[in-house]
Amino acid sequence: MSPFLAAEDLSMFGRDPWWLVVIKAVFCFAFLMVTVLFSIVWERKVVAWMQLRIGPNRHGPWGMLQSLADGIKLMLKEDVIVKRADKVVYVLAPIVAAIPAFMAIAVIPFGPAGNEISIFGQRTTMQLTDLPIAMLYILAVASVGIYGIVLAGWSSGSTYPLLGGLRSCAQMISYEIAMGAAFASVFLYSGSMSTSAIVEAQQDRWYIVLLPVSFLIYIVTMVGETNRAPFDMPESEGDLVGGFNTEYSSIKFAMFMLAEYVNMVTVSAVSVTLFLGGWRAPYPISAFWEGANHGWWPLLWFVIKVQLLLFFFIWLRGTLPRVRYDQLMKLGWKVLIPVSVVWLMLVATVRTLRNENYDFADIVLYVAGGVIALLLLSFIADMFRERAKAASHPAEEPAFDAMAGGFPVPPLPGQELPPVPRRRSRRERELIVSGGPDTQSDGSLDGKEASDG
């Protein structure tokens, strides 16, 4: 039976005793916390290496305990609540931001769905639980986390945190649409929304090979969802002081930082599960070693893949500058969403033809013909649009006003700043201050200087 029509078997979940469920939950929490502590130090080390600096090297061997020391320092700092804040929402916001970040890891498989490992004599799966709609659960939990950032900006009673919260809300909405379309392509190929079933469907070929466009779209959207550089608009300190967390201190500020790094680990784990084979060993290892995907070994492959994606996050931060906000919105609405929707339609067409038992050559021929026809129609439409624009001769746009509304505004694409007025020379300024003739209104200065000479 085709995997598109196969139903997932989740009967192995929900049979663990309560103490084993508690152990698994503690392991998931500890995995996230340890990975976050390591990622913070690793990020500072890698960025320092890129910038020819030393990085943290004081706390612990090679500075590995630096993030732990920073966390203890934040907890011991004075916890300040600003006077104009809505205290209940102000305190609740970091909790709302942090808790959903931990919840998504519950449905991520660290190993095969069968009873592969033994914990205190109890055979169990390397996954806390699974659901027939596990990926929808992840999307729902991720969307709840944004409320923490929005409420933090609103409840602070300050202008810049409010702007940071609004930016984050718009950014999340823009990029979650393309992320959902990328997920839908995986659902079409695997025939399931269960995370364990999606990994099982990648036994022969990882989805990064079958769905490369979906993988690239998700990589971009996961950077935008976690507010990481170059998409860190909500906390851009250059124009918002510190963004939505400007008015926070002590443990509440630490919870926002914790939520950001936990979200990095979560989206990396989701990417590994959907596109990189999950817990499966890479091809050269799995081909020559039968036991690579059994026992505790799958946990090692999963952790290595997650760490590689975390390194990708760090690499972006140390390489790319922050984009403008209009560029961020243009990429989300005008590039990612159209591309993801067209790609989803293409994937659905291919899956339908495969289910109808069409040959691979026929599928390629039909898809290529449709793509060529779409490109021709787009070319013709652009050609007629350019001719109509050239024939209309639109009226000249008004000159750009750099002080529109009394405030300095940056020029939009295609607009030019007015020329800067000529600066007076030192001789002219001295004459004006001393009561001499103004060179802008009196043209006799040059003649007087010539007669004096």
Automatic annotation (TrEMBL):
Listed Pro residues bias regions: 408-420
GO BP: aerobic respiration
A single MF term (Gene Ontology): oxidoreductase activity, acting on NAD(P)H, quinone or similar compound as acceptor
Enzyme class label: translocase
EC numbers: 7.1.1.-
Pfam families xrefs: NADHdh
Keywords: Cell membrane, Membrane, NAD, Quinone, Translocase, Transmembrane, Transmembrane helix, Ubiquinone
Location(s) in or outside the cell: Cell membrane; Membrane
Domain of life: Bacteria
Main subcellular location: membrane
Membrane topology of the entry: Multi-pass membrane protein
Catalysis: reaction(s): a quinone + NADH + 5 H(+)(in) = a quinol + NAD(+) + 4 H(+)(out)
Parts of the chain that traverse the membrane: 18-42, 88-111, 131-154, 175-199, 205-224, 261-279, 299-319, 331-351, 363-384
Spans annotated as Disordered: 405-453
One cellular component term from this protein's GO annotations in UniProt: plasma membrane
Family (UniProt): Belongs to the complex I subunit 1 family.
UniProt function note: NDH-1 shuttles electrons from NADH, via FMN and iron-sulfur (Fe-S) centers, to quinones in the respiratory chain. The immediate electron acceptor for the enzyme in this species is believed to be ubiquinone. Couples the redox reaction to proton translocation (for every two electrons transferred, four hydrogen ions are translocated across the cytoplasmic membrane), and thus conserves the redox energy in a proton gradient. This subunit may bind ubiquinone.
Subunit structure, interactors included: NDH-1 is composed of 14 different subunits. Subunits NuoA, H, J, K, L, M, N constitute the membrane sector of the complex.
UniProt xrefs under HAMAP family: NDH1_NuoH
Name assigned to this protein: NADH-quinone oxidoreductase subunit H
Source taxonomy: Bacteria, Bacillati, Actinomycetota, Actinomycetes, Kitasatosporales
